[in-house]
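Design request, tokens follow.
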């Protein structure tokens, strides 16, 4: 049974979402009104999805998201009244997988939760006819374990980062448009803004490139999209 964590200082909103989730078959729902309480829950349980507000009494949601990312790669959906482009980009940069603004429709949120759970299950249970590991020079991507290794050392990645890496590793040396990447990885569940792809590309570059601001592996082809150029050997 899937377990969810809701983090918001509005008790009424927590109760409303809990009731809606229960009606849709989600019966294991933990609720936290502070960051401290949320971190305690995360250390004790494995969650399928975490819904997180930005404005909390003891720590803002962006910092909390970063702290959660130190513990788990569980998908995190921001659910907040903060609506500026900077807020959205900040949420994605600190490790969020989705960003939903208030007011929202509970059934739409639940649909996105189901989509994320379905994608996670598909990722954890790959088609056994497909390759389960890709190795290019000093980079190794283990699909079965959901692990990225750079020069033999494991580098933690979120679910979306792993999905993007998998797509690139399966299609080396091909130019892939930003729109195609967005539709392939996010489908219709996220922001409708292809800038999301750019945010995640930058996060991946910090993990695989020697000089992230001057990428050699995951490059931008101006006006066309992105291309993964596999390394040929060990990085010096």
């Amino acid at each position: 049974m899937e377990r969810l964590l809701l983090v918001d200082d509005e008790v009424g909103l927590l109760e409303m979402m809990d009731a809606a989730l229960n009606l849709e078959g989600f019966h294991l729902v933990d609720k936290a009104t502070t960051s401290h309480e949320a971190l305690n829950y995360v250390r004790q349980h494995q969650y399928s999805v975490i819904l997180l507000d930005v404005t909390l009494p003891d720590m803002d949601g962006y910092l909390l998201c970063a702290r959660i990312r130190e513990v788990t790669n569980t998908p995190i959906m921001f659910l907040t009244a903060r609506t500026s482009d900077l807020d959205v980009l900040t949420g994605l940069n600190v490790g969020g997988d989705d960003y939903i603004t208030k007011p929202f429709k509970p059934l739409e949120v639940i649909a996105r939760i189901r989509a994320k759970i379905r994608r996670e299950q598909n990722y954890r249970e790959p088609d056994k006819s497909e390759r389960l590991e890709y190795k290019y020079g000093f980079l190794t991507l283990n699909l079965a374990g959901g692990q990225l290794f750079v020069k033999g050392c494991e580098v933690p990645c979120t679910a979306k980062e792993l999905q993007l890496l998998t797509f690139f590793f399966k299609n080396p040396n091909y130019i892939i448009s930003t729109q195609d990447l967005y539709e392939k990885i996010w489908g219709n569940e996220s922001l409708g803004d292809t800038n999301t792809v750019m945010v995640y590309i930058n996060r991946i570059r910090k993990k695989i490139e020697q000089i992230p601001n001057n990428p050699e592996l995951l490059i931008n082809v101006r006006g066309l999209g992105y291309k993964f150029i596999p390394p040929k050997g060990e990085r010096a």
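Comment from the thread starter after seeing the answer: thanks! The chain has eight helices and twelve strands.
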